[in-house]
C-alpha cells in the first residue's frame, strides 16, 4: 500500500534504534563500548546494519537512543552517519540518556528510551514509528513491513523469525492464529508455543516493531503511569496490546533482502563471543551466507582514508598470503599466513606468524613467529613474538577468556598480564 501521494510509506516513518545495551555476554569486548559499537565484518560496526536497512528502505528520519559507554558509538555515528540533510526533510538524532524527564532517571527500559524523547519525535511529525534493536546482523526492507502494518489495520506489527522450538526459550515468543495475528506474547518461555501446523518451530521476536505514532505515544504514556511496569516493549507494551488490541506478526522471510547467491535468510544475534566469532567467519566462505558485496543493499559505515592492503615477501616459509580470508585496507601481511580469517583495518602481521580462524580487530600487531588459532583479538592489541594460542586448551584458559567452543578472546589487559 502507498500513501495518497503514491510515495513509499517509509517516507512518512521514523526509525528509532535502541542502542543503549552493554551486551555483557560479549565479555571484555564490551568493557569499553556498547554492543552496537562492536566491530563487525572488517570495516563496519554492528549498529550499521539496522541503520543501513533504514536508509536502504527509504526511511530518512532516524533517532538512536544510547546509554551504556556510548562514546565510541557516538563518535562512529558522527563520522559515518552525518550525511543526512535537513533541507531534504532528513534527520539523524543521537539521543543519549540525558535525564530529561527526571534528574534521577536514566533510561529505565526499551519503552522508556522512546518515552523520554516523545517531544523530539513529535517535532518531526512521523506518521509511523519503526522501533529497531541496534545489535543484530541482517538485511531487511522495512517498507514491506510497513505495508503489512497498514494493510492489516494492526495496532502493532512485530517482526519475527521462525526458529526451532527448543531454541526459542531465549526469545520473546509469539503464539499466532492462522492469519498470523498474535494471540499471546511470552518473554523467554520455558515451553515455547509452536507455530500452527508446525509443531517443531516457534515464532521469535526480532525486537522490531511498527506502530502508528499517535497510538505508540498513547501506549507509552499509559505505561509510564503504571508503577508496576518495567518500561519494556517485550515485557510490557507488546503483551498489553496483544491482550487489549490487535498485534500482527510479520515474518522475516517476507522482507529479508538476499543477494543472488545468498541461499538463506540471514539473521544473527552476535551476543556471545562464540556467535560473534562464527558470524564474522561466515563472511570468509566461498559463497558467504551474508553477502557484504551486495551493491543493491549496501551496508553503510565510516569511510576510512587508508592505503590498500599489502602482502610482502615471497620466500619458502616466509610468504605473505591469505587463503579464504577477508583482509581490510591498511593491512600488511609481511611473510605471514592468514587462513579463514578476518583482518580489520590496520592489522599488521609479522614474518613467520600465522592466523587460522582468527577475527582480528583494527590496528592489532601480530609479532613474528606467533601462531594463533580460533581467536578473537580486541582492537589495538600487540601480540608478542612467538605467542602460541589455540594449541594448549589448559594454558589458553589460564591466560585468556576461552569459550566452551574453544574460542579465545584476547584483550590488552590479558596481554599485559602475561609473564613472557
Helices and strands, with pairings:
Layout: E1 13-18, E2 39-40, E3 44-45, H1 47-57, E4 61-66, H2 71-80, E5 91-96, H3 110-115, H4 118-124, E6 128-133, E7 137-138, H5 142-152, E8 156-164, E9 172-176, E10 182-187, E11 201-212, H6 213-224, H7 233-244, E12 247-251, E13 267-268, H8 273-282, E14 310-312, E15 314-315, E16 318-319, E17 321-323, E18 326-327, E19 332-334, E20 337-339, E21 342-343, E22 348-349, E23 354-360, E24 365-366, E25 371-377, E26 382-383, E27 388-389, H9 393-399, E28 401-402, E29 408-410, H10 412-417
Parallel strand pairs: 1-4, 1-6, 4-5, 8-12, 14-19, 17-20, 18-21, 19-22, 20-23, 21-23, 22-24, 23-25, 24-26, 25-27, 25-29
Antiparallel strand pairs: 2-3, 6-11, 7-13, 8-11, 9-10, 9-11, 15-16, 28-29
Site (Could play a key role in the communication between the regulatory and the substrate sites): 67, 106
Family: Belongs to the bacterial/plant glucose-1-phosphate adenylyltransferase family.
Domain Nucleotidyl transferase: 16-285
Description of the structure:
This protein is an alpha/beta fold. The chain has two domains: 276 residues, Spore Coat Polysaccharide Biosynthesis Protein SpsA, Chain A; 108 residues, Hexapeptide repeat proteins (UDP N-Acetylglucosamine Acyltransferase, domain 1). Helices cover 22% and strands 28% of the residues. The chain is built from ten helices and 29 strands. Strands 1, 4, 5, 6, 8, 9, 10, 11 and 12 form a nine-stranded mixed β-sheet that branches. It holds the Pfam family NTP_transferase. InterPro entries: ADP-Glc_PPase, ADP_Glu_pyroP_CS, GlgC_bac, GlmU/GlgC-like_hexapep, NTP_transferase_dom, Nucleotide-diphossugar_trans, Trimer_LpxA-like_sf. This is Glucose-1-phosphate adenylyltransferase.
Amino acid at each position: 500500500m502507498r500513501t495518497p501521494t503514491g510515495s513509499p510509506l517509509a517516507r512518512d516513518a521514523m526509525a528509532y534504534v535502541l542502542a543503549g545495551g552493554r551486551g555483557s555476554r560479549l565479555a571484555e569486548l564490551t568493557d569499553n563500548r556498547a554492543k552496537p559499537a562492536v566491530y563487525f565484518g572488517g570495516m563496519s560496526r554492528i549498529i550499521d546494519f539496522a541503520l543501513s536497512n533504514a536508509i536502504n528502505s527509504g526511511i530518512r528520519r532516524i533517532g538512536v537512543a544510547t546509554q551504556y559507554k556510548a562514546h565510541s558509538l557516538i563518535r562512529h555515528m558522527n563520522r559515518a552517519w552525518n550525511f543526512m540533510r535537513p533541507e531534504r526533510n532528513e534527520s539523524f538524532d543521537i539521543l543519549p540518556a540525558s535525564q530529561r524527564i527526571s534528574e534521577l532517571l536514566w533510561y529505565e527500559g526499551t519503552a522508556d528510551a522512546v518515552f523520554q524523547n516523545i517531544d523530539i519525535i513529535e517535532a518531526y511529525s512521523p506518521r509511523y514509528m519503526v522501533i529497531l534493536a541496534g545489535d543484530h546482523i541482517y538485511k531487511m526492507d522495512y517498507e514491506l513491513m510497513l505495508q503489512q502494518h497498514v494493510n492489516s489495520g494492526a495496532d502493532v506489527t512485530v517482526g519475527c523469525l521462525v526458529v526451532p522450538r527448543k531454541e526459542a526459550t531465549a526469545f520473546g515468543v509469539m503464539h499466532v492464529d492462522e492469519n498470523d495475528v498474535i494471540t499471546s506474547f511470552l518473554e523467554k518461555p520455558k515451553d515455547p508455543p509452536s507455530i500452527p501446523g508446525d509443531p517443531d518451530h516457534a515464532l521469535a521476536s526480532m525486537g522490531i516493531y511498527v506502530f502508528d505514532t499517535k497510538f505508540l505515544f498513547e501506549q507509552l504514556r499509559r505505561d509510564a503511569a503504571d508503577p508496576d511496569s518495567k518500561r519494556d516493549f517485550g515485557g510490557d507494551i507488546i503483551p498489553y496490546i496483544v491482550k487489549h488490541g490487535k498485534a500482527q506478526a510479520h515474518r522475516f522471510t517476507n522482507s529479508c533482502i538476499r543477494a543472488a547467491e545468498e541461499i538463506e535468510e540471514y539473521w544473527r544475534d552476535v551476543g556471545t563471543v562464540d556467535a560473534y566469532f562464527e558470524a564474522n567467519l561466515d563472511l570468509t566462505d566461498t559463497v558467504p551466507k551474508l553477502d557484504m558485496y551486495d551493491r543493491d543493499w549496501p551496508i553503510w559505515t565510516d569511510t576510512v582514508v587508508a592505503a590498500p592492503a599489502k602482502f610482502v615477501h615471497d620466500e619458502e616459509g616466509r610468504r605473505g598470503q591469505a587463503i579464504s580470508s577477508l583482509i581490510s585496507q591498511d593491512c600488511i601481511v609481511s611473510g605471514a599466513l592468514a587462513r579463514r580469517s578476518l583482518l580489520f583495518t590496520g592489522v599488521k602481521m609479522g614474518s613467520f606468524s600465522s592466523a587460522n580462524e582468527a577475527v582480528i580487530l583494527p590496528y592489532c600487531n601480530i609479532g613474528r613467529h606467533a601462531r594463533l588459532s580460533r581467536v578473537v583479538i580486541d582492537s589495538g592489541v600487540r601480540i608478542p613474538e612467538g605467542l602460541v594460542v589455540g594449541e594448549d586448551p589448559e594454558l589458553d584458559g589460564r591466560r585468556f577468556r576461552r569459550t566452551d567452543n574453544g574460542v579465545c578472546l584476547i584483550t590488552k589487559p590479558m596481554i599485559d598480564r602475561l609473564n613472557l
